[in-house]
Amino acid sequence: MTFVDLALLAGPAIMMIGLVGHLLIGDLLRRIIALNVASGGVMLVLLAVAAREDVPDPVPQALVLTGIVIMAAVTGVALALARRVDAVSDESEDR
Amino acid sequence: MRYPALLPALVLLPLLLSAMVALVPRGPRRLAGAAASSITGVLGSAVVLALMIDGGSWEFALAGWEAPLGITLQADGTSTAFLALMTVVGVAVTVYAAAEPRLAGGPDFWPLWLVLWAGLNGVVVAGDLFNIYVMLELVTLAAVALVALGGRSAAAPALRYLFVGVVGSLLFLLAVALVYAETGTLDLLQVTAALEPGPVLTAIVALTLLGMGAKMALFPLHAWLPVAHPAAPAAVSAVLSALVIKAGVIVLWRIWFGLADDATAVRALGVVAGIAGAVAVFWGGAMALRSSRLKQIIAYSTVAQVGYFAIVLTLADGSAAGWSGGVVLVLAHGLAKAAMFLAAGTLAVAYGTDRLSHLHGAITHTPMTVAALGIAGISLAGLPPTFGFVAKWQLLMAAIEQGAWWWIGVLLLGGLLTFGYTAAMVRATFNRPGDDEVPAPHRVRSVLAVVPFTLAIASVVFGVFSAGLVDLVAEDPTVRGHG
Known about the structure:
The complex is a heterodimer. Chain A is an all-alpha fold. Chain A has a single domain (about 5-95), classed as Helix Hairpins. Helices cover about 85% and strands about 0% of the residues of chain A. Chain A has 3 helices and no strands. By secondary structure, chain B is mainly α. Chain B has helices at about 5-25, 30-55, 75-100, 110-125, 130-150, 155-185, 190-195, 200-215, 225-230, 235-260, 265-290, 295-315, 320-350, 360-365, 365-380, 385-400, 405-425, 445-465, 465-475, 475-480, and strands at about 60, 70-75. In chain B, strands 1-2 form a two-stranded antiparallel sheet. In chain B, helix 16 (about 385-400) runs parallel beside helix 18 (about 445-465). Chains A and B meet through helix 1, helix 2 and helix 3 of A and helix 5 and helix 6 of B.
């Protein structure tokens, strides 16, 4: 088994671990991190696809770069919303 | 008239305008936002008109770089129909939001709305899979931020919506990675030609169905929708239900009808999608009948209507009537649902609540708004001569063509349920017996009643003059790819 084969198998597995974690965990911060783990799995698949030939294919690598930027933006929005959700629930507890 | 160079402007112009509007101070931002949205609307109408007169399909390679290296944009008959819907609903929502900032979530609405509009246009004209993914993410981020404008209580629904949207996108991105691994290209037309049947193709179609199913709230992945759509300001709810859902629908349809083959596993997926759609029609309709607030009824109605979009996957299988029926259904649903949510927003401002129990007498005080609700509901239920009827008729023809009589039962019962909850909404606005002093509502600007009423009337007018549209869509190359 080559390194590329390993990455092609590990990518979907990591994605599944992230998604299952995301769906089963209640804590918002941990759910956001699980989502990032899942996206890491997808990126690994794309990188493995790029590394199949001796000369790396630049197209999937460009896709991974764009994907990372998008996930960073999503994580930022998710964290901002999670803070607001926590602030609202803290208020209702104080009452 | 062929101006393919206008296609990138559909995405880039609203993005540029959004950045400019965001820099305008909060006071005059409503004016700037309305002006920028109007420019986007004018551009959209120009492109739609030119595409309709030309009658063909446009292609444009950005900066002259052809696929597979460059980014290509393309517009066919289906794109034209979706662009037309986005332009009509977009302009209506712009007028509505400019008239009443409270129903749009304040000045922050405008830059986000322009980003959303750019993303929606982008999903429709994107010619390659990766740009479809990027545009879907743009739509999700903007839509989530717009939901969060609904106030402090909207934060939790918005976050839930973001989670579902991103999970859907990741599943789709994995499908995109598989496509590239198999074919070495991302251009949709080249992929359709190059992808060999096999387990990878099945996996691609399954991942897309699951991912887009989550994004368009297909039963049983719908639970976020009845929470997120009512939490948003009324103008935003209208856009979410009429347009944002459709971004997931068009991507699913393009992949499905472009790639799906006759393999047993793919056929089984089609059956699963059809069953999920049928359950959605009944579940959404039943939950809408049980709800006691206007916005919640309309949101559950969207869950039911999304079921039809999944049923189209099986009905349009090699059937031109099924395909054009599906596209017309998307347009009819978009017009009707936008009219309903905007009318519900107007009633909520007038009466301070959208609870059915507080709306009695509304038919006397705000007859035009109630009429918009009723007419839109009749179009959704598929009664003649409305747009919804044209769509349901085409789908019925497709079901008869294929001898698949059970879909006829689903279509008719679904229509009955739609009629039921529409009647419940209109019924709640009647004066109660012996109720001489009906509660007087707050005064609202008449434009808030005119906009939903115009959309509702449009769903009747387009129904009467829909033959040309059905032809435009039926000639679409997307259907041939599957034949």
